[in-house]
Amino acid sequence: MPTPPPPLAGTTTGPAALRPLIDTVLTALHDGAHRRDGPLPAGGPDAVTPRMRTATHPVVPDHGTGPHEALRTLITALTEGAADPADPLCAAHLHTPPLALAAAADLAASALNPSMDSWDQAPAASALEADITAALAAEVYPGRPTPDALVTTGGTESNQLALLLARERNGPVQTICAANAHHSITRAAWLLGLPEPVVVPAPTGVMDLATLQEALTRSPRPLLVTATAGTTDTGRIDPLTDIADLCTAHGAELHIDAAYGGPLLFSPTHRHKIHGLDRADSVTLDLHKLGWQPASAGILAVPHRHHLDPLHHRASYLNAEDDTEAGLPDLLGRSLRTTRRPDTLKIAVTLRALGRSGIADLIDRTLAAAHHLADLITETPTLDLYDRPTISTVLFRPTDADDTTVATIRRTLLTRGHAVLGRAHTGNRLWLKATLLNPHTTPQDLHTLLDLVDRLTNDLAEGKTPR
């Protein structure tokens, strides 16, 4: 009798098939984390790569090993070799530790596997996405009658869509951005065949207003200014209201890349930092940063639903005209992608479970930790603080260290598996960058991080070779 095919994740039998597999996955996640025992694996690429290759070999065996062995072996190995953003000493990038409830919701999305390119593949998911995107757009544009938003893979896709929509509204726009802008702005202009952006200096970490006014005066029309609310290097926020005023005076459109800072909207304590966000013609925000969602959970919001009309596209097998006229929602104009996941499910679960107050608490805790870290650095005579954090990014460096030493400290911490810190070059110096996104971070965690840097600095000063 032939062997039946492996069970599927859907229908009424799917949950029973998933239950023992999930138990194996959870055990593997637990065991791998214990083997790693830290924020990332020790040994660097020379240790991690061969260990992972041993676990995966052969990648395509002649005969399978069975689901539990495959899950146990590969997930344990991947977890052992992971950089774990849930560890408080993993603080290099805008790489958030996802909430357990959001990860659980993502499992359901994978099991159900709606494809968000036609209603007949995603009946309920399409309704959920419409409501969630409208609600998030209303957070960005309160009081506007018809704001809307698209789900994206993150800031890069959102910024590209923003430039595309501006081009479709106005023709080949001349983009003006600051030196602090995300690299995706320049790349989007290149991809879309637009003129190379005019780059305004940011000597204090934010867009220089006087130079922006000069650029607006001399640059050829039509114009699109892109401002940043939360830079990747320092977390600084451009003066959004002043920039919006200049755009209005010069007839320019405004896009704000708030991938990092946008979720501050949910915090009554911190939302004033992004005042003026609602004056933009489009806004990027990522909920896989200060929203604690598994990647990806990007959003592009616009003040008027019709701003998204240029994305409309017809493919008869997905959105036939007579189907649309008969009342089936047309989803193809909701993205440049065709097949895409129902990423709004995890967002919806998080919003419902935590509410505004719960999300605000996560944001406030995280930003408070960043300020506490800045305080500790200021109180440590062997460390220099770049500046007080605007959001949750803290730059610091050992006093009197040169840039080579700073880079060596970072790489040594990585290789030893002790801590994950980023790097930022600003003020003509290289800085260690701690991007705090873990609301569970304690003062003791922050002391531990600084102690690691201090001890390693002393070792290097004494001529001890890092290993």
Mean pLDDT: 97
CATH architecture type of the largest domain: 3-Layer(aba) Sandwich
Number of domains: 3
Distance N to C terminus:
58 Å
State the oligomer: single chain
What is the CA-atom radius of gyration, in angstroms? 24 Å
Q: What portion of residues is helical?
A: 40-55%
The named CATH superfamily of the largest domain: Type I PLP-dependent aspartate aminotransferase-like (Major domain)
Element-by-element helix/strand order: HHHHHEHEHEHEHEEEHHHEEHEEH
- The CATH class of the largest domain turns out to be Alpha Beta
Low-confidence stretches: none
Largest sheet: 7 strands, mixed
Task: Give the topology.
Elements (H helix, E strand, L loop, with lengths): L13 H23 L8 H12 L10 H14 L19 H13 L10 H18 L7 E5 L2 H16 L3 E5 L4 H9 L6 E3 L8 H10 L4 E6 L11 H11 L2 E5 L24 E5 L11 E5 L13 H4 L1 H5 L18 H36 L3 E3 L7 E6 L4 H14 L5 E5 L2 E7 L7 H19 L6
Parallel strand pairs: 2-3, 2-4, 4-5, 5-6
Antiparallel strand pairs: 1-7, 6-7, 8-9, 9-11, 10-11
Helix pairs in contact: 1-3, 2-3, 4-12, 5-12, 6-7, 8-9, 12-14, 13-14
